[in-house]
From TrEMBL:
PANTHER family: XAA-PRO AMINOPEPTIDASE 1 (PTHR43763). InterPro entries: Creatin/AminoP/Spt16_N (IPR029149), Creatinase/aminopeptidase-like (IPR036005), Creatinase_N (IPR000587), Pept_M24 (IPR000994), Pept_M24B (IPR033740), Peptidase_M24_C (IPR032416), X-Pro_aminopeptidase_P (IPR050422). GO terms for molecular function: metal ion binding; metalloaminopeptidase activity. Residues 10-130 form the Creatinase N-terminal domain. This is Xaa-Pro aminopeptidase. Pfam families: Creatinase_N, Creatinase_N_2, Peptidase_M24, Peptidase_M24_C. It comes from Metallibacterium scheffleri. Residues 536-595 form the Peptidase M24 C-terminal domain.
Amino acid sequence: MTHHSGLCPLRSHMKARGVAACIVPTADPHMSEYLPARWQSRAWLSGFTGSAGTLIVTSDHAGLWTDSRYFEQAERELASSGIVLMKQRVAYAPEHLAWLAARLNAGARVAIAPDMLSLAGARQLRATLDPAGIELLLEDLPGAIWSTRPALPTAPVRAHDPAFACATRAARLASTRAQMQQAGATQHLLSSLDDIAWLTLLRGSDVEYNPVFLAHLLLDTERATLFVPPGKIDAALAAALQADGIALADYAGIGAALAALPQDATLLLDPARVAVATLATLPTGVRCIEAGNPSTAAKARKSTGELVHWREVMARDGAALVRAFRQIDTRVRAGETLSELDVDAIVCAERARETDFIAPSFATIAGYAANGALPHYRATPAHHARLQARGLLLVDSGGQYLGGTTDITRVWALGETTAEERADFTHVLAGMIALSRARFPAGASGPQLDALARAPLWAAAADYGHGTGHGVGYFLNVHEGPQGIRPPVPGGALVALEPGMVTSIEPGLYRPGRHGVRHENLAATREAAQSEFGTFLEFETLTLCPFDTRPLEPALLDAAAREWLDAYHAQVWTRLAPRLSGADRDWLEARCAPLAA
């Protein structure tokens, strides 16, 4: 993806349109986390390839706002671009909207593409700009000068294999309609791609790592229309959808369909997941009910059948990773030269040997030594480290399988480790175990549980800057709402953890320039006990892969944590040993050995 050359033409176009500033967000018409190439205008203009960031261009300044996960990457990718890194969520650094309001005079115009701005986002923008007398222009200025802009993706859409779907379209549509009517809505608009894929039992490959496809879905009390680019759904699948009450229409037809809604319609939509451009044609008389999509909460609660498939996927994924990690560990210790790029290749190759594997669920993070301290590090042919037979290697990776999505982080000692590395490794593991062992009342939310994972780190006067856990989709997006485990945010929604939800547990500790540690498993929430105080819940750890006990300081773990680790390793051995042989099985046995008393 070439870049930088677009800033001059963009500024010329801004001048011609009388625009003082142009905001280029990381978004598409579906408010996706990962974007189809067509909407990667921020990356095209700036050269910054991280998954989060906002570019603001004025006549004399260009700044890119991103968070601490990407500071080092952004500094490298923005070098000599004329674009300044503006650090987000850092003390005394202005956030981009405040910076913009302070920099522009009353009467100035700010442009942003309306298909990359949610309804909620537009309100937030106006709340900042209106009091300063700044006008908002909903126009895609980068799109107007991007002559090589990619077309819409053309990959086919397929039905999720019925052997793994664990549901019918009819049932999912019916339950969504029941909630729609309960809310008092006659129609429901969905633009979020994972909601649409889940509701229609369809999967695609329009977005890297996420098995989703570009679409909008409009439901009324009897029918549903799926707006999808033509040619992506074959005749047989179209007929099956028709039989389930889903008609097909062109992706570009959503505006006309909304314009045709009757004046007395009441439309249910999620203001954070629908673009301003999509709603531009909505008749003024149509009443909107703004709330989360009913499918988002339903999708988060995995069914018994889905969890059965997922447990099997975890055993396959674990076996693949044991083969990969054994190979990396033994080859480096034998003096062979491997790089972080080889780690990615080996992990992907071993996963690809497993049945029903589709693709990675995100770009592998393989960070050796100092690179492990960058939470969203990605090795490239131009920037990567060679592994040496000492220190720590952090590997965060995942797979998309027909029967579930995986996301796991393990840290391996490739040889001798320092006292600091061992202490950090153990404190983070203590935090992960503390949260994994937690029992909590029904109704408790992620922000209430977050401190359990941090307490052992806090006791060592350490902390980490990211959340502790995110929801995970079932052969869907690796990052899924509505639940999450992270520190409380003022005004943030508290979403209760419910039985069936699958969430990551991933505390970390990062020492810039030295090393990073993160341990991550996926866990399903389940019922634990009933008492006079109500229902209590707990986590069932789904991930099956040993932890490296060589860099562990057992004295820093309490008896309960050591007991949990031994029990976990016993289960990993029981589940994975039958799937492995020879050196792989021997290596697993050594890694799963109980801690010495």
